[in-house]
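User: Show me an example of a complex going from sequences to structure tokens.

Assistant: Sure. Here are the input components:
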Amino acid sequence: MMLRFFRPRRSAPIARERLKVLLEHEHAELGKPDLVVALREEILAVIHKHVSVEPENVRVTADRTEKMSTLTVDIEIPLATLKAAAA
Amino acid sequence: MGTVLVVTSGKGGVGKTTSTAALGAALAKGGQKVALVDFDVGLRNLDLILGAERRVVFDFINVIQGQAQLTQALIRDKRLESLFLLPASQTRDKDALTEEGVDEVISSLREVFDWVICDSPAGIERGAMLAMRHADMAVVVTNPEVSSVRDSDRIIGMLDSKTARAERGDPIKKHVLITRYDAARAQRGEMLSIEDVLDILSLPLLGIVPESQSVLQASNLGSPITLAEPDSSAAMAYADAARRLKGEKVPMTIPSTKKGLFGGLFRRAA
């Protein structure tokens, strides 16, 4: 109980920061909600031109910070596919 | 084959999302594989309560519409590796949540996870109906307050008639979880007592979660209360409730006012 009393408990600044980042991104995305879907489809189409990739071997992750969003597209290309493409 | 659990209430603001996150994290901490599914299309918040809001790429509706695979849309929790979130769509039309789509997604999740916990939107509309549709068990979140109890009663009626199990004549297991309980006010007779609530709703009690400052603290931090403040009375109530969901017999802790004068003073000072 005493420890809890002395521990800093100011979580509101963290909450404010999280909300600011989230809402800014949500406002920016309004009207074009499928940006991520569009990007993924087009990136896949380009890759498909060269090698065939199963959709389940594509992982897309995102992170959003105050200044920017990152989108990571992780594509697993089986060795056999690479060899076939090289042949 | 996992268990599908719906967390529902009818009324908004009683603690459905907080309870979904807290129970899910407690189950995952105990080694269970858990998927939390947000059904609140357009007003999603489970991502925020779990601290995953920056990592949402695909959502439930992308999966239903075939724009993403289920495995791609599931977000793994950063703290517990057996806890996953399927976020609701923030921008799509509610009607995109189709009965067939929900059916397919829940069946797939059920095969892989021990627990599929569906966080229902408030109200009794489509989203709430779909959230309870495939449930094997229900947690009805209720505040000891007249309008919440009335809405819970309404939702219990729907759980008994509108779910897939009810239609098959194999009723779902229902529990009431009392949240935001204030022992001091109940003792002074200003708040409905636990007996009153249970008497009116006639459901078994899953737990009593006391009104707690830790709940706001946890949501500020984006961490389920059972992880952020595991020693708080609210988190302990959720942890016990999670064990009861698994069928364990856990003695019920009734929040008391026995904190004493000092406890009360310190709480206020902190």
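The lines above are the inputs; the final block is the predicted structure for all two components together. Residues 260-270 of chain B have pLDDT under 50 and may be disordered.
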